[in-house]
UniProtKB/TrEMBL annotation:
Function: DNA ligase that seals nicks in double-stranded DNA during DNA replication, DNA recombination and DNA repair.
Keyword Heme in record: no
Name of this chain's protein: Probable DNA ligase
Named cofactor requirement(s): Mg(2+)
Pfam families: DNA_ligase_A_C (PF04679), DNA_ligase_A_M (PF01068)
Catalysed reactions, semicolon-separated: ATP + (deoxyribonucleotide)n-3'-hydroxyl + 5'-phospho-(deoxyribonucleotide)m = (deoxyribonucleotide)n+m + AMP + diphosphate
Listed EC numbers: 6.5.1.1
Residues of the ATP-dependent DNA ligase family profile domain: 293-417
Gene: lig
Binding site for ATP: 217, 224, 239, 268, 305, 377, 383
């Protein structure tokens, strides 16, 4: 397939606001594939449609792509040819590699047309939006392959990758999709929690109100970890499935010591003080953000709350009480999340109160009947947090003044607008307010660099950025407002932390913000 077809489709997707038309454009591109397509070609194509390359590293950056050769007149580049070029670029190393890289870039970009050059550069530098397209690509794959959308989605969750699901659907149809199961060593999308304002509401949602017992877990404020052990090999990934094994040797040690050879566990890792109280989240975050930080002090401890596989037994579809029994038998109590199992709302409320008094974030109420629903945010897990925070997206940032004049300071906050997002097939946001509170000098320095990298415009005062950075903010309340387009504004918003484990499409919605309006 010619790259030109991909670039045209990408332009068509960007040009229409209709989700249906976007999916149709993507599906008609996929239908250009031969009846029995080469799996590699499908894989490359699925990556390109999501705005990424199969190669994680190419050794290329903006600088190497600033001066491009004159474009080709006629499109000749193919999807597989482009992939081969990046494959050989990725393997360049050592003396002479810089000149070889420049020559390879000149050859590749010289063969690209005027329309293809900027698109290809955008893919290499990560500027063509990723992630947001995932859901559209899944729909298009279902339409083009004839497989059910639910099967494509299920496979993508289990594989932790839309690309792998696309290859399976387009080369082997329903049968290949059905073959996806949890594999030890291959991360799955984590199960997520919905929210309730208090424990009674959470119990009702998770089925506990009908007198059935539910589990009430401590909600620990660390980072989500999914751990796979296959013999001596251990893999630790974050909520966004990034590999952080090398940064958490303590977690690896704990899992290697368990009496099981093949296991997949889900939990939270955090730093705890000698008094047993959780340390501020920043300590865990700084440990997981930098390799080698473990040498300087703080220890991170894993607390597991679920087991998805145990020595040949796939537990994903087993009810939660069965998984809990397996977890209790496998993991010592000091590495399990504390929980009570109860049908009594008063007991659950007492546990939640004590959790907060001990410095934890709150509780997660869980149905004991539910399967592990990879990638889903449903009623089977319901979180209750007394301190309200929202995960919003930074839309712009203002230059600081006075003491902050060297930094970008006041951030503009946006909530996800689901209607506009659905209509346009990519995340859209509504501004809710601004804040310059809660930022340490370290955070100010970090955000200045980060937002300069995301900059799309600078009028000398306000720097507009690509809406990609998620920030968790605390606030005192939400009020009606005529100043902002969503009709609501935050009162006394302050930054709690920047979140790199969430993409913008996962930010809180305008609805979630409005739910905090009084009355
Ligand atoms: N006992 C627990 N069970 C499940 N999740 C827990 C538990 N303790 C802490 N957590 C954390 O809470 C999160 C569950 O909330 P949710 O699925 O909404 O994710 P989130 O959007 O990252 O939430 P939050 O911002 O509240 O941490 C998990 O991702 C996990 O990191």
């Amino acid at each position: 397939m010619l790259l030109a077809h991909v670039v045209q489709t990408s332009a068509a997707v960007a040009a229409t606001r209709s989700r249906k038309e976007k999916v149709a454009a993507l599906a008609s591109l996929l239908r250009r594939l031969p009846v029995d397509p080469d799996p590699l070609e499908v894989e490359v194509l699925a990556h390109l449609l999501g705005g990424s390359l199969r190669q994680r590293r190419t050794g290329l950056g903006w600088r190497g792509l600033r001066d491009l050769p004159p474009p080709a007149e006629v499109p000749t580049l193919t999807v597989l040819g482009v992939d081969a070029a990046f494959e050989s670029l990725a393997s360049l190393a050592g003396p002479g590699s810089q000149a070889a890289r420049a020559a390879a870039v000149a050859a590749l970009f010289g063969a690209a047309t005027a329309g293809e050059q900027p698109w290809l550069r955008g893919v290499v530098t990560g500027e063509v939006r990723q992630g947001a397209l995932d859901a559209l690509v899944q729909e298009a794959v279902a339409a083009a392959s004839g497989a059910a959308l639910a099967s494509v989605r299920r496979a993508a969750m289990l594989a932790g990758s839309t690309t792998r699901a696309a290859v399976a659907a387009l080369t082997g149809g329903e049968e290949a999709l059905a073959a996806f199961a949890l594999e030890v060593g291959r991360p799955v999308e984590p199960m997520l929690a919905s929210s309730a304002t208090d424990v009674a509401e959470a119990l009702a949602k998770a089925g506990g109100a009908e007198g059935r017992e539910v589990a009430v877990d401590l909600k620990l404020d660390g980072i989500r970890v999914q751990v796979h052990r296959d013999g001596d090999d251990v893999l630790v990934v974050t909520r966004s499935l990034d590999d952080i094994t090398a940064r958490l040797p303590e977690v690896v040690d704990v899992v290697r010591a368990l009496p099981a050879e093949h296991v997949v566990l889900d939990g939270e890792a955090l730093t705890v003080g000698p008094d047993g109280r959780p340390r501020p989240f920043q300590e865990t975050a700084s440990r997981t953000a930098r390799r080698g930080a473990e040498a300087h002090g703080t220890r991170v401890t894993p607390y597991f709350f679920d087991v998805l596989h145990l020595d040949g037994r796939d537990l994903l579809t087993a009810p939660a009480h069965e998984r809990a029994a397996a977890l209790d038998a496998l993991v010592p109590a000091e590495h399990r999340v504390p929980r009570v199992v109860t049908a009594d709302p008063a007991e659950a409320a007492r546990f939640a109160r004590e959790a907060v008094e001990c410095g934890h974030e709150g509780v997660v109420v869980k149905s004991l009947e539910a399967a592990y629903e990879a990638g889903r945010r449903g009623a089977a897990w319901v979180k209750v947090k007394p301190v309200h925070t929202l995960d919003l997206v930074v839309l712009a940032v203002e230059r600081g003044s006075g003491r902050r004049s060297a930094w970008l300071s006041n951030i503009h906050l946006g909530a996800l607008d689901p209607e506009a997002t659905a209509r346009e097939g990519e995340p859209r946001f509504t501004m809710l307010g601004k804040t310059f509170k809660g930022m340490t000098d370290e955070v100010l320095a970090w955000q200045t660099e980060r937002f300069r990298a995301l900059e799309v415009a600078d009028d000398g005062y306000v720097v507009t950025v690509r809406p990609e950075q998620v920030v968790e903010v605390a606030f005192d309340g939400v009020q009606r407002s005529t100043r902002y387009p969503g009709g609501v504004a935050l009162r006394f918003a302050r930054v709690v932390r920047y979140r790199d484990d969430k993409v913008a499409a996962e930010a809180d919605t305008l609805e979630a913000v409005r739910a905090h309006l009084p009355g």
